C-alpha cells in the first residue's frame, strides 16, 4: 500500500506500526532494549540515536500525517524546538520570529540565544510585511506559529514560504495548535514542522513528547545535533503516543465540530464581548484560515463582559476544568493573564490584546449540549444582569 493514497484515519491507525514478526500480534510490541547488536547490522541502534524500533516506526506515522519525508520523536515539544533551532542557527546567524509564539520558545530565545551569539527579531504583527522588513544579511530562518496563542491570529504560510525561498531562508512552524489533522504546512512550502505531542498527538493529557518532520536532508541535519543534545523519548512513552495517535483523526474532528458550535453559541451570548475563532466570519483572518486550514481547529478564546470576574466564572464551571495545557479529550479553560502570559508586564499584555477578561478554551470531545449547559449555568451565576443592561 502506498502511504500517499491512504486516508487520514488509516494513517492514524496503521502507518508506522512496529511489526511483530515473532507472534503477529495486532498491535506494535514495545522494544525496551537500550542495547542492540552492532555486528552485521544495517543500523546501529541506541535510544539516544532516535532509532530504536518504536521510535523509528512511529516517526513514520507523524511524517505521513504531515506529508513529510521523515521525522523524529522527542522527549518534549521544547526538546524538538530547541534541537531544531540549534541545528540550523550558528553563532552570527539571525532568525526572524513571529511575535506571540509559545512562551517556552520565547524564553529559550530571550534567556539563551545571546550566549550563543544567535540574533533574533520578533515581528510587530503577523502580516507578511512585518516579516519581510526584518530579514537581514545574516538571516537564516523564519519561525512561525499559526494559529497563534491565545488570540488565534493566522499567518499566511504560502506567503512566508515564498518570501523565504526568494531570500534563501529555511522556514519552521510550530503546528501544535492546529495538529496535522487541520493543517499541513509542508503542502504550502514550509520546510520544517514542529509539534508538542503533549497536546493533540497525545490528546489524553497523560504524556509529554515532541516531534519534528521535514525533508530527509533537513532531518539529517537535525539528527546530527539531536544525538548530542540527547532529547529522545523513552520507548514506553513512544508506544503510548502510538496508541493515542490511532484516534487522532476522530478525536480532533470531533473537537473541531464541537468548537464550531460553541464559537457560535458564545458569539451571540450577551455576557461575551468577542470570540476569537478563525471559523467565525467576523474573525479578521477568516478567509486566510479557510485557504490554509482544513476546518478551523478546536482552540479559541473569548472575552468576558467587564462586569464578570473571570476567576469566579472559571470556578463556577462544573464540567469544564480550569487547567493548564490544552488539546486533551476533556474541555479545559484558562486565563492567559494568570498562566501562559503571566510573566509579561501588564503593559505588554495590554499591547498584545490579552486582558484579564480573556479566556482560552480548548474544546474537548464531550457532548456539545453538556458543554453549552455548563457555560450557560456558569455565566448565569456570575453575570451582573444590571450592568449588562446599562452597558
Ligand atoms: C505546549 C506547547 C509547546 C511546548 O511543548 P512541551 O511538550 O510542553 O515541551 C510548544 N508549542 C506550543 C504551541 C505548545 O502549546
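^ Assign residues to that structure.
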Amino acid at each position: 500500500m502506498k502511504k500517499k493514497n491512504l486516508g487520514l484515519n488509516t494513517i492514524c491507525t496503521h502507518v508506522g506500526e512496529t511489526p511483530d514478526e515473532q507472534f503477529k500480534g495486532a498491535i506494535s510490541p514495545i522494544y525496551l532494549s537500550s542495547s542492540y547488536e552492532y555486528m552485521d547490522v544495517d543500523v546501529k541502534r541506541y535510544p539516544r540515536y532516535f532509532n530504536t524500533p518504536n521510535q523509528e516506526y512511529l516517526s513514520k506515522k507523524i511524517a505521513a500525517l504531515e506529508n513529510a519525508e521523515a521525522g523524529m520523536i522527542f522527549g518534549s515539544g521544547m526538546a524538538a524546538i530547541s534541537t531544531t533551532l540549534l541545528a540550523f542557527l550558528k553563532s552570527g546567524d539571525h532568525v526572524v520570529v513571529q511575535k506571540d509564539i509559545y512562551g517556552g520558545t520565547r524564553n529559550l530565545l530571550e534567556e539563551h540565544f545571546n550566549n550563543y551569539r544567535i540574533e533574533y527579531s520578533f515581528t510587530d504583527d503577523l502580516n507578511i510585511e512585518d516579516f519581510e522588513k526584518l530579514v537581514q544579511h545574516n538571516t537564516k530562518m523564519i519561525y512561525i506559529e499559526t494559529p497563534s496563542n491565545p488570540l488565534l491570529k493566522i499567518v499566511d504560510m504560502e506567503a512566508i514560504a515564498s518570501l523565504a525561498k526568494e531570500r534563501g531562508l529555511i522556514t519552521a512552524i510550530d503546528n501544535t495548535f492546529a495538529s496535522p489533522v487541520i493543517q499541513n504546512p509542508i503542502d504550502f512550502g514550509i520546510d520544517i514542522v514542529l509539534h508538542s505531542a503533549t497536546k493533540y498527538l497525545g490528546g489524553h493529557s497523560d504524556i509529554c513528547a515532541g516531534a519534528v518532520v521535514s525533508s530527509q536532508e533537513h532531518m539529517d541535519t537535525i539528527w546530527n545535533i539531536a544525538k548530542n543534545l540527547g532529547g529522545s523519548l523513552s520507548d514506553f512513552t513512544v508506544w503510548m503516543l502510538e496508541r493515542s495517535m490511532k484516534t487522532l483523526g476522530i478525536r480532533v474532528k470531533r473537537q473541531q465540530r464541537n468548537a464550531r458550535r460553541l464559537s457560535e453559541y458564545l458569539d451571540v451570548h450577551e455576557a461575551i464581548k468577542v470570540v476569537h475563532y478563525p471559523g467565525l466570519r467576523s474573525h479578521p483572518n477568516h478567509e486566510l484560515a479557510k485557504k490554509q486550514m482544513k476546518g478551523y481547529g478546536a482552540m479559541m478564546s473569548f472575552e468576558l463582559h467587564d462586569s464578570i470576574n473571570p476567576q469566579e466564572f472559571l470556578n463556577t464551571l462544573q464540567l469544564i476544568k480550569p487547567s493548564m495545557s490544552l488539546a486533551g479529550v476533556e474541555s479545559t479553560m484558562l486565563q492567559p493573564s494568570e498562566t501562559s502570559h503571566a510573566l509579561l508586564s501588564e503593559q505588554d499584555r495590554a499591547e498584545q490584546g490579552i486582558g484579564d477578561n480573556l479566556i482560552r478554551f480548548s474544546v474537548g470531545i464531550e457532548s456539545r449540549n453538556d458543554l453549552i449547559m455548563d457555560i450557560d449555568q456558569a455565566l448565569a451565576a456570575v453575570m451582573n444582569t444590571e450592568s449588562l443592561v446599562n452597558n
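DSSP finds 14 helices and twelve strands in the chain.
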